[in-house]
Amino acid sequence: MSITARAEVIAAPKISVTFPGLTKQGIPHTDLQVQEIVTRQSWPNNLAKEGGCRKPQFHPMFLEEAYNKCRDICAEYAKTFYLGTLLMTEERQKAIWAIYVWCRRTDELVDGPNADYMNSGVLERWEERLHDIFDGRPYDMLDAALSDTVFNFPLDIKPFRDMIEGMRMDTRKSRYKNFQELYLYCYYVAGTVGLMSVPVMGIAPESSVSAHSIYNAALYLGIGNQLTNILRDVGEDASRERVYLPQDELAQFGLCDKDVFSRKVTDEWREFMKEQITRARFYFNLAEEGASQLDKDSRWPVWSSLLLYRKILDAIEDNDYDNLTKRAYVGRTKKLLMLPLAYTRALSKPGFSFH
Ligand SMILES: CC(C)=CCC/C(C)=C/CC/C(C)=C/CC/C(C)=C/[C@@H]1[C@@H](COP(=O)(O)OP(=O)(O)O)[C@]1(C)CC/C=C(\C)CC/C=C(\C)CCC=C(C)C
Ligand SMILES: Nc1ncnc2c1ncn2[C@@H]1O[C@H](COP(=O)(O)OP(=O)(O)OP(=O)(O)O)[C@@H](O)[C@H]1O
Ligand SMILES: [Mn+2]
């Protein structure tokens, strides 16, 4: 059965929305883009090389220092994820650290301490720098690590540009009319991470499913993570006057922004949250199938990310759906127990259940 067909079966949404990216009624833009990227990945070279650029020749010690800096940032911001990367081959872990740092810096432009200085010029300049990275002309040391990475792996610039587009969207918009709008935002800021990661993590040689479906699964893991991140942070985002929830679905449960800002956990809120959690789990389930298709050395960090983020949904339930005054947290013990489980999952061979 194809992943698309299965998604339609599972969806049976109580909320009357489609799951874009999977169906023609959705956002074909996103799906087309996956198609385009997969096609490019199958070329022997990436776009930068095709444009005639040669691999930049950095001094090996400079590169080592650049990657070490990326490693340190990754270890500081995402400890568990960093542990997961340690099981990857050296080339892959360096590449993932460099991508992580670029994503983190992009996110910090809008979320970080200098966010007050954010304007369209800042993002334009950041995008120019991105092109320079892909052309082998990095601006600083952290950019140099990514520049080296894009010449070592068949990375496409499109998901990187799309992430910047997501930051633009975030600066312009603080409400989402429906799930379709929210899905696009989630694709931009997190689905893109999945698309960036697959060429580095590699597909298992024994996998017989299409590359297209694996890229889709990676995109869905990003969507699941971002939806979870949003549900965990509703209260925190409300303090910044932001509501990353579909307005039409709030209304279906008799809710509106005022209820979010009042921070009262009512039965309506609980019912609404149950539906949102179901949807996030739906995307995690889709991603699971792809995680087993990755190269065996890359599966552990992916399973860790999937299981950790999924646990945050359980923690929201354990808080009786109070994500307005509390931040769902997965305790250290639970988190550590999850690592061997992720490892066991990572040992499972690619299945042949979808194409
Ligand atoms: C192996 C692995 C997990 C690789 C991904 C590493 C990577 C490059 C991560 C970058 C993450 C990042 C900094 C993104 C910027 C935008 C952002 C902040 C998105 C949110 C991440 C959570 O971060 P955090 O909780 O720290 O955010 P705040 O503190 O609230 O700012 C997101 C929720 C997105 C995370 C999305 C992913 C990690 C995508 C995972 C998908 C894959 C790795 C593909 C796996 C492949 C298959 C086939 C399933
Ligand atoms: N125990 C947790 N409960 C809820 N969310 C978490 C937890 N641990 C991490 N996260 C979220 O997942 C993201 C990445 O996870 P990771 O475990 O790699 O980071 P971390 O450095 O271990 O996080 P933390 O410093 O919060 O323990 C974090 O940035 C955070 O937003
Ligand atoms: Mn953020």
Automatic annotation (TrEMBL):
Its EC number(s): 2.5.1.32
Record's keyword annotation contains Cell inner membrane: no
Annotated TM spans: 182-204
Assigned GO CC terms: plastid
GO annotation terms (biological process): carotenoid biosynthetic process
Pathway, per record: Carotenoid biosynthesis; phytoene biosynthesis; all-trans-phytoene from geranylgeranyl diphosphate: step 1/1
PROSITE patterns xrefs: SQUALEN_PHYTOEN_SYN_1 (PS01044), SQUALEN_PHYTOEN_SYN_2 (PS01045)
Gene3D superfamilies assigned: Farnesyl Diphosphate Synthase (1.10.600.10)
GO molecular function, one term: squalene synthase [NAD(P)H] activity
Domain of life per record: Eukaryota
Family affiliation: Belongs to the phytoene/squalene synthase family.
Name of this chain's protein: 15-cis-phytoene synthase
Species, as recorded: Corchorus capsularis (Jute)
Lineage: Eukaryota, Viridiplantae, Streptophyta, Embryophyta, Tracheophyta
